[in-house]
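Continuing the batch. This is chain 6 of the set; chains 1 through 5 are on the previous pages. Same settings as before, nothing changed between runs. Recording input and output for traceability.
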Amino acid sequence: MSPEQQAATAVNPVTEAGRMAPKNYDAVLLASFGGPEGQEDVIPFLRNVTRGRGIPDERLEEVSHHYRANGGISPINQQNRELKAALEAELLARGIELPVLWGNRNWAPYIPETLQGAYDAGHRRVLMLTTSAYSCYSSCRQYREDIGMALTETGLDGKLEVDKVRQYFDHPGFVEPFVEGTAAGLAEVRAKLAAAGTPDAPIHILFATHSIPTRDAEAAGRSEGEPREFEEGSAYVAQHLANAAAVIERVQGESGLTAPWSLVYQSRSGAPHVPWLEPDINDAIEDLGGQGVKGIVIVPLGFVSDHMEVVWDLDTEAMETCANLGLAATRVPTPGTHRKFVDGLVDLICERTVANNISDRPAVTDLGPWYDVCRPGCCANFRGEKPTIAGADTTVGTGHDPYPSGTSGETAQL
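Output for chain 6:
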């Protein structure tokens, strides 16, 4: 990195470095995880999720129970269809002529097929919006790798340009639905306790997110030229803690309701000897019950929609834990297709477009707004080098995109 680039990084690493100039995009790509849509899809889907790990079908069948219990159907695909339709409607209402394409990482419609279809339809410059808001390998870099690999595999590298909007964990459009939901959840649990004759019993708020390996958590946000130290040594953890604090402050200020809170994790998978972020939400609920807490408000702060890990891990397992302990409990909605969330996503698109440009980049925490262009080595992939998009081997502060084609030079930094 040159002295000039180092100076640019030090001046304002959050609001200036890594910001790209607006472009004339001709399509938007909604990229997501994907999920099975029938019992016969479950094992093929799980093979996709675990590809390269050599896990036998017998083991996959053992962990398929939450899909099997719901007819083999994950809610995520239908939720993405609804989000796609909502985005299209809002873009149309604003007079923005951008088609919304949809591609998944692990199930149809697959990202490579979507990109090939986009190119065949005449699109040449696509802006990607993902259904993951926070910074870590699986929430950001893996999507950037998905696109890089897809462009390479389809031969579209250098022919189809794909950029990505910033991680939007603290964009008001994502946070506002949680503010509304948390206030409503506190009121609901307080009403349940009052009906049970214990109106002043203690309530605790659990902000829940997906657990990840601690090694990935420690790598989240760590990159060349990043001057900040993150709380608990991880951008992933720090972003959740900052968001939760912002939600609590807003709820208390607007409704007068409040309660002690903590960040908990769910959906742990992988080998037992590999450390993941803790505490698990069910362990936390049991500990709180033993401490005399009588009411629990679960806020799925890490999730965009009510997909399987919300429906099963929270609505089924966590709520059962609360019921077994005799705790009054509720689960706050995810943003889904909440009007403020959809508006916020379209605002994120407009941050990057020439027409209908929004130059202001709001953020409800001091950690944002996050970068358009990820810094070298950010959220490192410990599993091997892969081509990526939306990354750079130098800090970008001028709006210039050093990698206008599909594959960036970022993998050279790994």
